[in-house]
Amino acid sequence: SVGSTGSYVPVLWMPSDELGVYTSAESNIKYTKYNQTSNEEVAAFVTSETVTGTPQVAYYPYSESAGTDPTSLLGSIPEIQTMDPATGSLPGDCKIGVYQKTTSNGAEFKFTHLFSPVQIIINGKGTDVSSDNLKYIEFNVTRNGVAVPVCGTFTFNATTGAYSLSNTSNSITFDWTTKPSLASQAQAFGTVFPAKRFFSPAIHNELR
Fold first, then answer.
1. Rounded Cα gap, residues 27 and 146, in angstroms
2. In whole angstroms, what is the distance from residue 106 CA to residue 44 CA?
3. Band of residue 205 on the pLDDT scale cut at 50, 70, 90
4. Cα distance between residue 66 and residue 26, in whole Å
5. Which of 101, 164, 177, 188 has an alpha carbon within 20 to 30 A of 54's alpha carbon?
6. How far is C-alpha 178 from the geometric centre of its chain's CA atoms?
7. Residues in Cβ contact with 63 at an 8 Å cutoff, skipping those fewer than 6 apart
8. Whole-angstrom Cα distance, residue 22 to residue 53?
């Protein structure tokens, strides 16, 4: 979930979020968020499984099929991402957690985004489309005439952050659930593969 505090935009943990954790003795243990009622910038996660090993690495979101090897996990950034202002969810988000320390409250991890969250702001006030509603925005990304991948599937190493892309596309669509009026500002957040100078004249957007 994405909140906003001035120019700082925190990414919050949502009540339904789940993590996968690897230890020296266990693989892909599912942890669920302890606070099931609100979004939090710093959150506690719990598991019903017995854990005996030393914490090593964590990843988000949890996948039951992740397997025993944290250096070869599968993920995807969807080609169509739903912008839902009511929840502030961040589609396609993928994080890796580096183990920090163990306290009386349990193991602590510091999470970072594997890919790039992007902020999308549309404001048609005073333009010819101000009486319309925004349905979706489509970006087709090229650089010097060559397609630049911004979504698709990937394999990643949760211990180092290294990744390799596969089945990629240079086209991505951000679809609004609320179809907001273009007479005022509409804002949402999505996720893309890293792309140098992402918002350049080579990117074309379409409002429908």
1. 40
2. 9
3. very low
4. 13
5. 164
6. 20
7. 20, 28, 73, 74, 75
8. 9
Judged by DSSP in three states, 140 sits in strand
CB 95 within 8 A of CB 60: yes
Scored b (16 or more CB within 10 A) or e, 63-95 reads eeebeeebeebebebbeebbbeeeebbbbbbbb
Give the pTM.
0.86
Name the burial class of residue 137, with classes exposed (0-12), middle (13-18) and buried (19+) by CB atoms within 10 angstroms of its CB.
buried
Residues 21-51: pLDDT tens digits? 999 999 999 999 999 999 999 999 999 999 9
- Distance CA(207)–CA(205), nearest Å, equals 7
CA distance 52 to 69: 18
Q: Determine contact, residues 115/194, Cβ cutoff 8 Å.
A: yes
Nearest to 151 by CA among 203, 193, 100, 195: 193
**Rounded Cα distance, 78 and 115, in Å:** 13
Which residue has 């990843």 as its token pair? 59
